[in-house]
Design a protein that fits this description.
Elements (H helix, E strand, L loop, with lengths): L1 H22 L3 H7 L7 H14 L3 H17 L3 H21 L4 H13 L10 H11 L6 H14 L4 H7 L2
Amino acid sequence: MRKNCLFITVLQVLITISVLYAQNLSITDIRKDFKIGHKDEKACKRHLQALEKYADSPVERGYEAAYHMFMAKHIGNPLKKMSYFKDGKNMLEKEISGNPNNVELRYIRLCIQYYIPSYLGYKDNIEEDKEFLVNNLYKLSDKETKDLLYTYLKGAKMYSDSELALLGR
């Protein structure tokens, strides 16, 4: 009887830890590594696995979509490359269609569309998303996230000085 109680207690602790991990998906690390996900296969795989398992918000699913697209860069098989890219693109567009005013989702799409090769045919929303972010980035309530996104966009050199002034307000 005591062994069963001990087993149940240990099991409850493990479940609690895994629930806490799911709730603390480390979206901060995922955001910080977003700029290297296409270069760093290890980080890309680590974040994609966590996101596939635990993503439960539009932003988390948006990053999951982005890391799917990043995986295309790390796969040798051309069919799998396209599959990763198309799946990620469809996932991201689904999240944006359900949350068109989500600043971070629009940021994710802008960054991907701005840097991917033209032949992939996924560059239709660059100007729209740039304008959306100029008009809405300042509304983000999470200052750390807002600063991170602004710093990345500033360094990407996709905005003019006057746009950056509005973006950074």
